[in-house]
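Dear colleagues,

As part of the handover before I leave the project, I'm documenting each prediction I ran so the next person doesn't have to rerun anything. This entry is a single chain, and its sequence is reproduced below.
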Amino acid sequence: MRNNVFRNGPKISVIIPVFNGEKYIKKMIEILKSQTFTNFEAIIIDDCSTDDTLDILQKHTKGDKRFRIFANKKNRGNAVKNKQFGLSKAKGEYYFYMSQDDLIDTDLFETLINTANSVKGGVDAVVPNMLYYSEDKTKDRGIFPPDHNYNLQLTGKEAFELCLYWKIHGFYLRKTSLMKKIGFDTSIFTGDEVTSRIYLYYCNKIAFVNSNFYYRTDNPNAITKSNDIKILDYVTAQLKLADFMIKKSFEKDFIKKWLKETFELLKKQRNILKEYYKIKEKKCFPKEFKAGLKKIRILFLLTLLKFRDLSLLFDILRYTHIRKRVADYD
């Protein structure tokens, strides 16, 4: 595809937070440079890496004005905060996010932009396929349009409801102007999972394309592989989404189902942490676990009060009760 780089500013701003990614960075840069659509800027935020990530970035992007490297002086400790910073620097009409270890088809940007430009009335989001992959092979499973229908166009509410259950994933093309209005919830490390859903709700129209985003599953250092206290943020994210649905007057049965599933997630995450602390041979839970569970209890109870349904009340009180010793939890 013929296009002039930055003739009228970049069309796409690609936001990429990085931390200790020396194993993956070079390949990520190569796949961006090989894009058939060249009118993009890559905003890469290094969050105080302690390996050679920054040196590799500077070496392999030198002389290419599309790559804008930002090196944090202090670790932000939260990838979502780096996404928010990257968004504030974005000059493109469209926003796209990827991690340091993800890959994309060489025609992905071209396919996304062609669809964004061709749909009558315009679209606010364009969603590619998402394939799970590891170093040795691409896995068979992935996330595709409902019924594999690439001509499908959805309303914001329809897409929001599908995205709640990841039938639509979060790696899609968005309008930068709308993203800046919505912003990120930087209070939790899963804040982007909240934003990905809420953004879709405010879209007028969502389209799909048959090009691929590859989500890596074999990076042992990925934050999503963590079993520490941060995993309670997944529960917090679901409660924030429940609160959003209550405010937007979603169907009561739909919200109730979501709250029940959030409670099941709470039980699962609590048990994971219990086993994690057992392995660490801790007799008593650390302060951050107690504080995290207390925060979940308060947030859950407030959500139930807003929803005016206390059927889960006693279960929540039981599973968020603060016990002193690890062995005291059933």
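The chain has two domains: 12-223, 226-328. The first helix runs from residue 25 to 33.

All the best with the project,
I.
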